[in-house]
Each structure stands twice: as C-alpha cells, then as structure tokens.
C-alpha cells in the first residue's frame, strides 16, 4: 500500500493508481466527467456483450432451414432485445461515453458545465437499461421488434396471439428514463462547448470530434422528445385505454410510425456522427497530415444534421403514400448522401500522400471507410421507391444497416478505443491482440453480412424464426452463421485485450501517438482536474504548433511517436 | 450567454418538439375523424377563455417580478411573484373543474379520439403548469428567505420556462377550443 501512496503523490501511470478514484464510493458518488465517462464505457460494453450474445443465438437458430431449436416466441424476444440493446443500451451510450469523456478535455475544460446533471444522466441510463432487462424476469419480455409497431404493442395482443405482455411497459418506461438522460447529456455537451472552451479556441479551431459531438447533441435534443411523445401515447393506450393507435376506434397505427421514425432517422445519425468525429481525429494523426477540408467537414456535419430531420418517411415507403410525398422523401434521402460523401472523400484525401502508419486504430478507420461506403450505397438504393417496395423487411435491409452500424459505427468505436484507451487508462492496448481482433472482425463481419444482401434479394424475410429450404438460402445462411462466429471471436479478443492491457499493458506516456489535440497535452490518465497547464490554441492542432515552436535550435527534441517518450 | 439560461433554452426547445408531436396527433384526428370533431362541442369555450386570460396575464406578472428582482427591489417582486403563482393556480383549478365536468358528461380518455387527444394534450400541458408552479413556489420561498439564497439565473430560468408553458397554451387554446367554431 505504501508503494501506491508514493505513486499517487507522483504522476500515476495507470488509472488504477489514481488516489481520487480508489474505492467504490468514489465511483458511486462521482461527478467527474472522466469517471462518469468510464462508467458509461463499462456499462455500455456489458450491454454490448449481452446484445452480441443474443446475435450469436440468432445466427445459431438460422444456421439451417426449418430449424426448431428456438420457438418463434423466443426468437421474437431475442431479436427485439438484440435491437433494443444495441441501439439504446450499447452503441448510443458508448458514443455518449466518448462525448462525455473527451469533449471537456479537447476544449481545455475542467469538467462539463453541469457535472451533477451528468451523473444523473448516467444513472438514469443504467436504471432504464436494467428495467428493460428486468422484463426477462417477468417471464414475458418484448416480442415486437425494436421499432415496436402497433398493433403488436397493443393490449389486445397481450396474452393471446403474440404474448405481448408487460415487457412492452418495461420497454416504454426504460426508454423514457434513458431518453431523459440522453436529453440531459445533450444539453450538457452543448452548454459545455458554448461556455467552457479555452479563450483562444474559436469555433473554427474546434476539434472535429467536438464539432460532430455538438451537432449530435442537437439531434439528440430534438429527436428524442418525439420518441418520448410516442412512448407516452403508447403507454396511455395500454393503461388508460386511450385510442391513439387503435384502428377499431378510428385510431391510426401510422401515427406511431411517423412519430417513431421522426425520432428514428435522426437517431441513425446520432449513432454515427460521433463515430465520424472519432475517424476525423484518428486519420490525420496516423497519416501525419492535417485533416483535408476542415471547414467542409464541419459544414457537412451541419448539413447531415439538418437533412436528417427530413427523411424519416423513407422507413415507411411501403405503407402507401401519395406520389408527391414519395418524391420529397426519395429526393431528401438521396440528398443526404452528398454531405456523407464529402466526408468520405475528405478522409481519403487526408490519407493521400500522408506517411500512414497502420496501427490498429488506423486499420479500423480504413475498414470503416470501405464498409460504411457499402452501407451507404445500399442505403441510397433504398431511396429509389420501387427498390424499397421490393426489399423492405428483407435481409437486404438487415445487411444494409449492419454495414452502417456494425461495419460503420462499431468499427469507429474500436478505432476510438485503440486511440484513446492509453489516455483513459495510462496503458496501451496490445497491438498484437488488436491486429488479430481487427482481421477476425473484418473477415467475420464481411463474411457474415455481405452475403445477406443476396438472402434478401432471394426473398428471405427478416424477423422470422426460420425459413424454408429454398434454393441457396441454406448455403447463404450457413456461411453467414459461420462467419458470425468468427466476428464473435474477434469481439471476445477485444474484451480480453481491454482487461489484460489494463494490468499488463505498456505504460502509455502522455502522447503515445503524437496527437495534436488538447487531450494529449495532459498526463495519461488525466489528473482529476484535467490540466496543469493548457498550451495556447492558435490552430486546430495546438500541440503541433507547440512542437514547432520548440524546434528552434537548442530546444528540446519534439515529442515523437511511440512508447514512453515525451 | 449565461450557461444556466442557455441550458434552459435548450430544454425548452426539446420540450417544444414533445408538444409538437402531441399537437399534431390532435390535429390529425380532429381533421380526419368526424366523431372527434363533433365531440369537441362538449367544450365550454367562454369559461376556458377566462382561464386562458389568467394564464396570459401570469406571463406579464412573471415579467414584472423578474424586472423588479433584477433591479433588486424585493418587496414588489415578491408581490408580482405571488400574483403569478395565484394566476397559474387559478388556471390549473379551472382545468380541473373542466375535467370534472367533462368526465361527468361521460367524456373520458378512452371514449373516443377526441377524449384521447384532448386529455393527453391538455393533461401534459397542465402537468407542465404544475411543475412551473412548484418552481415558482420554490423561487418565492428562496426570495422570502433573503436575496443571496436565490441566484439571479434561477429567476431568469423559471421565467423562460413559464413563458414557454404559456406560449404552448396560446397554441392549444385556438387549436382545441376555437377550431370547434367552424
């Protein structure tokens, strides 16, 4: 114990040695954005593991045609929980974790503007998540898919045909809680960025991650209340016999779909924008070049945020609408590909001519660009209304959104972990395990999901527990399932890497990658007060400026990449 | 801009979307379901117009209270604050009486689409008024205790919220009560 006390008085080399972070109470009562960020990371990773396990169960059920290992009711519960978990309890809070942890550090602030509200957001998220999972113990969890369309969620279906019972109520209340937490986080991030930047940091010098997190916060702020309103209406329908979604009394289930997707499409961008931000930080550092088209990146993000509120009905093209509405939504959907395309070009242009080092974080970014482009292309295909009519509710949709959310967002999250884990914990993640994980994930992911496009084209319908033995379907699904296990193995290696490196990882030093943004100007892990000194901010790369100013003859050597330097 | 004030404005923006969805639900069923349009004739328009005037007036008294607090004149500020609470409470009591009479006539949340959308929309507005009253009451108590206990931003934030709640009613009233008079 004496040892650790001595260490704590010096600069701690690992998160485990920070005196202020010792003991359970320091975590339970914390209002430090870094601790709350770590709690977000941990909780969302646990939920992610649960969601991934459910996916493995699904792929096992689908491994052969006419498979009766799981009952239809069980399968419905599993895909509903998989979707709900991944979207609301794993990916979104994981991105929130990056936002909460790094936004204050990147703008040179000590904490977020409202630290106690920040803690409240986290606890609401945790409680909401536990409530949703608690529905398993009521013996009757969710059956209706994550989009929860009525009438599958109405009480009439409760105890007879589809066994939709109290699980839906847990789902509603859980999502209301996490939603309230998310809105608070959004307010917190926006006020922090508006109020707590170091004086020199003009908006045009804001790191792109902070730009994208801020736009993301605006989307959260304005999209989640639409979901909350829809949830409230559903709750009233179920408990006070209100008639919002009851067709027998003139109610219209389409009202749910419109409200839900008015939230749901911005949500899609909520799930990717911080990921774009991570990639925009990682690629320049590992290419040793400044980001190409900084202001275009920022403006394209604003454009995506703005357009994302005008495309929701493309989720409902098959419900039948007038042609003028089809034109509007087909056009806006195709239009939103433009700012996204700008980003892809800018990332590639940043790498062009750079001296690229393919560390694991960079590998994930490169794979992200390729996979996200495929997901984007299949997404634009859906903007064409007849294609959507043909392919909606098929496995083509499943392949499409897994290319954006798994091949897209999850890969950016992985890049973020490999890039920033040293900053958070003071230890490097193992590059050896990282490269194994990367290749397993790339091979597993593409093997499992690319082929599902063809399953969809062949007419295989999603959300059905098994399928008939039609030509090709058995082969396609067998291949997909086998590759899914490879993907699962990659994810397990990631978790092993997180744990092993925490104890055995190489000490990171302040700036192992030669990064240029302010979070690298403090120690790893950062002290509870974040900064002892903040370098002046004269451009989007303050540490680069610092390095150059020190390169005058006689000055100390500039901080360089690798190991324990600095 | 002051950080607490900015946070409150952002929160109000978020709440606005919540109400827009509920308002659109009302409009949808009022426009498409003939029975909902008929049922809305149950409403007592003149009476509600009076309570609406109370709420509108309370926005003015809130503004007066904020102005006096800013210039540090506690006594008149407390009086205006009390007037705001009273007007808000009158509005809420009026809404309660209206609910009782409607339910007495058999109009409930589950009777038809008018009942569903009307009670949901006005109910959530009433809930917001109620929360506003709690905030105003807290403000009043802190102000009574002494100026230092109550930070200046708190007054500004409560008044932003209160004006927002009033503004929402200024949309609901014509939409729900005056649309009947076609």
Give a verbal description of the structure.
The complex is a heterodimer of chains A (566) and B (182). Chain A is globular. Chain A is an all-alpha fold and 566 residues long. Chain A contains 18 helices and no strands. The longest helix of chain A has 35 residues, at 72-106. Helices cover 64% and strands 0% of the residues of chain A. By secondary structure, chain B is mainly alpha-helical. Chain B has one domain (3-181): Up-down Bundle (Four Helix Bundle (Hemerythrin (Met), subunit A)), CATH 1.20.120. Chain B is 84% helix and 0% strand. Chain B has helices spanning 3-32, 34-39, 45-70, 74-104, 113-145, 152-178. The model of chain B has no long low-confidence stretch (mean pLDDT 91). Classes of the chains: A mainly alpha (566), B mainly alpha (182). The interface between A and B is medium-sized, with 34 and 32 residues.
Q: Mind sketching the topology for me?
A:
The complex is a heterodimer of chains A (566) and B (182).
Chain A: H1 2-9, H2 24-28, H3 33-61, H4 72-106, H5 115-134, H6 167-195, H7 208-239, H8 253-270, H9 273-287, H10 294-307, H11 323-335, H12 337-351, H13 360-383, H14 385-391, H15 395-425, H16 431-457, H17 473-504, H18 542-549
Chain B: H1 3-32, H2 34-39, H3 45-70, H4 74-104, H5 113-145, H6 152-178
Helix pairs in contact in B: 1-5, 1-6, 3-4, 3-6, 4-5, 5-6
């Amino acid at each position: 114990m004496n040892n650790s006390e001595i260490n704590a008085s010096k600069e701690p080399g690992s998160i485990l040695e920070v005196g202020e972070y010792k003991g359970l109470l320091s975590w339970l009562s914390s209002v430090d954005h870094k601790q709350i960020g770590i709690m977000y990371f941990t909780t969302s990773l646990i939920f992610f593991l649960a969601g991934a396990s459910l996916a493995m169960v699904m792929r096992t059920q689908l491994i052969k045609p006419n498979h009766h290992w799981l009952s239809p009711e069980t399968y419905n519960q599993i895909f509903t929980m998989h979707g709900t978990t991944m979207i609301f309890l794993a990916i979104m809070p994981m991105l929130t974790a990056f936002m909460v942890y790094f936004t204050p550090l990147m703008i040179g602030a000590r904490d977020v503007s409202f630290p106690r509200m920040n803690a409240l957001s986290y606890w609401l998220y945790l409680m909401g998540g536990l409530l949703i999972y608690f529905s398993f113990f009521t013996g009757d969890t969710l059956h209706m898919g994550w989009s929860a369309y009525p009438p599958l969620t109405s009480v009439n279906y409760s105890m007879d045909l589809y066994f939709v019972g109290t699980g839906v109520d847990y789902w509603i209340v859980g999502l209301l809680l996490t939603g309230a937490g998310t809105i608070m986080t959004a307010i917190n991030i926006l006020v922090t960025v508006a109020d707590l930047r170091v004086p020199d940091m003009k908006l045009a010098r804001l790191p792109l991650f902070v730009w994208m997190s801020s736009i993301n916060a605006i989307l959260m702020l304005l999209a989640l209340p639409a979901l909350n309103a829809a949830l409230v209406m559903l709750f009233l329908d179920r408990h006070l016999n209100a008639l919002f979604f009851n067709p027998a009394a003139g109610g219209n289930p389409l009202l749910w779909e419109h409200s839900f997707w008015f939230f749901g499409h911005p949500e899609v961008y909520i799930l990717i924008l911080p990921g774009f931000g991570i990639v925009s930080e990682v690629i320049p550092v590992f290419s040793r070049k400044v980001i190409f088209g900084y202001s275009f990146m920022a403006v394209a993000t604003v454009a995506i945020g703005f357009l994302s509120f005008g495309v929701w009905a493309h989720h409902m093209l098959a419900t039948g609408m007038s042609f003028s509405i089809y034109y509007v939504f087909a056009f806006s959907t195709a239009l939103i590909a433009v700012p996204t395309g700008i980003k892809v070009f800018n990332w590639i242009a940043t790498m062009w001519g750079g001296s690229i080092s393919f560390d694991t974080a960079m590998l994930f970014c490169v794979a992200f660009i390729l996979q996200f482009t495929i997901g984007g292309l299949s997404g634009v295909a859906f903007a064409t209304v007849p294609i959507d009519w043909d392919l909606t509710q098929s496995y083509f949709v499943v392949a499409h959104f897994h290319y954006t959310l798994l091949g897209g967002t999850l890969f950016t999250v992985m890049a973020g972990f490999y890039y920033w884990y040293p900053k958070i914990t003071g230890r490097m993640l193992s590059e050896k395990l990282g490269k194994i994980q990367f290749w397993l994930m790339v091979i597993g992911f593409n093997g499992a999901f690319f082929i599902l496009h063809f399953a969809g084209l062949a007419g295989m319908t999603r959300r059905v527990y098994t399928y008939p033995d039609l030509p090709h379907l058995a082969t396609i699904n067998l291949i997909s399932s086998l590759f899914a296990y490879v993907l699962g193995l990659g994810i397990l290696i990631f978790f092993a890497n997180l744990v092993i490196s925490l104890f055995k990882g190489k000490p990171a030093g302040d700036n192992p990658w030669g990064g240029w943004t302010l979070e690298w100007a403090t120690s790893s892990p950062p002290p509870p007060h974040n900064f002892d000194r903040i370098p002046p901010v004269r451009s989007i790369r303050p540490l680069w400026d610092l390095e150059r100013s020190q390169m005058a003859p006689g000055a100390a050597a500039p901080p360089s990449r690798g190991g324990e330097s600095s | 801009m002051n950080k607490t004030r900015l946070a409150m404005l952002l929160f109000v923006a978020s709440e606005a979307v919540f109400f827009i969805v509920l308002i659109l639900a009302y409009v949808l069923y009022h426009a498409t379901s003939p029975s909902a349009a008929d049922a809305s004739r149950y409403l007592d328009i003149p009476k509600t117009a009076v309570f609406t005037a109370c709420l509108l007036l309370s926005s003015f008294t809130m503004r007066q209270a904020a102005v006096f607090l800013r210039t540090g004149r506690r006594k008149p500020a407390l009086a205006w604050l009390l007037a705001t609470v009273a007007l808000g409470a009158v509005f809420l009591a009026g809404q309660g009486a209206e609910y009782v009479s409607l339910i007495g006539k058999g109009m409930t949340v589950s009777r038809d689409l008018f009942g569903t959308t009307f009670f949901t929309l006005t109910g959530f507005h009433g809930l917001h008024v109620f929360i506003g009253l709690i905030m105003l009451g807290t403000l009043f108590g802190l102000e009574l205790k002494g100026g230092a206990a109550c930070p200046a931003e708190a007054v500004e934030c409560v008044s932003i919220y209160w004006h927002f709640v009033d503004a929402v009613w200024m949309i609901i009233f014509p939409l729900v009560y005056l649309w009947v008079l076609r």
